[in-house]
Amino acid sequence: MKSSALGDPSVNLHKFYAGHCHHFWSMLSDVVDEIAVQNPSCKGLEPLFISGSRFCNKLGGGLSAGISTMTLHFTGYKAGACSHVDEVVLALKLL
Fold first, then answer.
1. Separation between Cα atoms, residue 92 and residue 86, nearest integer Å
2. Dist CA 30 CA 23 (whole Å)
3. What's the pTM?
4. 48 by DSSP, 3-state: which?
5. Which of 10, 34, 80, 88 would be 84's cystine partner, CB 3.0–4.6 Å?
6. DSSP at 16
7. Ranges assigned E (strand) in the chain
8. What is the pLDDT of residues 31-59, one digit of tens each?
9. Which Pfam families does this one have (predicted)?
10. Per-residue pLDDT for 12 more than 80?
């Protein structure tokens, strides 16, 4: 049975995260401005917030790739194999 793009949970999840990520970036400068207003002695906070956000983004991506790779390794994934055991198929569906 084929699933349509509307019924595919991975497509809907991607749209959910893409929409919320956009809101985060649009609010980051407002947060920096608000902190600067509340603490006038603190100057130049924007690079700190941007670099901290970038670091967390990169760390999350790296952890995601590492966890995916380890999961596939422990389930018995073999690169170039024409067929895989059921555990690998399930892991790929869950990832």
1. 10
2. 11
3. 0.58
4. helix
5. 88
6. H
7. none
8. 888 888 888 888 888 888 888 888 988 99
9. MFS_2
10. no
List of residues 6+ apart from 11 with CB closer than 8 A: 5
Which secondary structure element, helix H or strand E, spans residue 79, and what is its range?
Answer: none
Let me know: does 90 contact 74? Beta carbons within 8 Å.
no
d(CA 76, CA 21): 34
Half-sphere exposure of 90 (CA within 13 A, CB side): 6
CA angle 57, 71, 16 (to 5 degrees): 40
Q: Which helix (H) or strand (E) holds 70?
A: helix 46-75
Q: Please tell me what DSSP assigns to residue 93.
A: H
Structure confidence at residue 5 as a pLDDT band (50, 70, 90): very low
Cα 18-23-26 angle, rounded to 5 deg:
125
Tokens describing residue 44: 């130049």
Confidence of residue 2 (pLDDT cuts 50, 70, 90): very low
Q: How far apart are CA 87 and CA 16, in angstroms?
A: 28
Residue keyed to tokens 């422990």: 74
